[in-house]
Hints:
Blueprint: H1 6-18, H2 29-41, E1 45-49, H3 52-63, E2 70-74, H4 80-87, E3 91-95, H5 105-111, E4 116-119, H6 131-141, E5 144-148, E6 156-157, E7 160-161, E8 168-172, E9 185-189, H7 192-202, H8 229-262, E10 266-267, E11 280-284, H9 288-300, E12 305-306, H10 320-323, H11 354-362, E13 363-367, H12 374-388
Pyridoxal-5'-phosphate binds next to helix 3 and helix 4.
Amino acid sequence: MYRIGQAEIKQLQKLFDSGAIFRYGSGGECDRFERNWARYVGVEHCRMTRSGTSALYAALVGLGVGPGDQVIVPAYTYMATALAVLGAGAIPVIADVDESLTLCPKDLKRRITKHTRAIIPVHMVGLPCDMKRITKIARKRKLLVLEDACQAVGGGYEGRMLGSWGHAGAFSFNFFKNMTCGEGGAFVTNAEAVHQRGSVAVDCCSFYWNPEEEREELQFAGPNFRGSEVEGAILNVQLRRIRGMLKTMRAHKQELLQIGLEAGLESIKNNSLDYECGTHLGFLFATEDEARSFCNRLADQGVSSFLPMDTGRHVYTRWEPILRYQGAHHSALNPFKLPANRKARVKYKLDTCQDSLDVLARAVLVSMHPNNTKVKLRKMGEAIRAAAD
Ligand SMILES: Cc1ncc(COP(=O)(O)O)c(C=O)c1O
């Protein structure tokens, strides 16, 4: 959904002319992006990472999640959400999504056990979760909330930015996202301690970024998922575009949604139409056959759409490493085999979240793009009307 062009090239030219492409010391692009992204999201701290997966992992480490903990993830999310949980040594527990295609608060409640430590609501395809109900449940049960906003960069829910509702939030800036630097990510939080611990998981050489590196709680081994100045420079330009792009896509989505509703279609549940990303318009059908036939009729008129069910590793039935309990490259590191996880372990079955499979096979999503012209939009509207007939 991103835009990229001359402005990024100019910024990169400036960066290469300066020769300061390492973020520490002479650099400044990553620092600037972290400051500005935190301000945009409305939180205190941000740390750039190499990807959304490493952002999720670092945030979990920052939150202190580890062996012995269960973390609830939705049945519809890219596998990386659940893999990050395993990366932190904890056990992912899969919960249903509802007709919003995001975590079902009712099912979330059902899946909480005495081992549950955290919840990862995922704002899939730009659609925000019902954060009011989810955070209420979390508060009541004293659970941590890490928002996976990898597919909802820049979006909000009920007037507050996604990533600022939970104890931490994670973003991806890979090729398919609302802002991109090719590959990249970031995690955000209001808690200084979470930021510091998470930063050790991003950059083991805390000497570079922390004048207080001797702090006791930071003395643990971490990998290196540092962002580079090249990525920082691109993201600083991308950040200037995001608000306008999302505003355009939201307006396009609402216009097409109205046409669909007038043509008798049923919408998926939209939790926050006025603040979400607007990247996907969704309709819900009574059966999978009806959904597929609507999809085909749209395709006949040159409008592409898809069923969430067909998105491979975004549906839990395709999370092979998890279904096979292969939680690490070495069995001694495998969270499914760690003695500390003996009581937290769960069994995964292909029908663990049957309600999700049902809804994911009856939904059709149409992608928006900020570059869509009025003419294109009119054609899309006509195609939706005709396909609904
Ligand atoms: C919902 C979700 N979570 C996490 C990720 C992981 O992000 P990355 O590919 O940048 O590691 C993605 C990536 O597509 C995603 O869609």
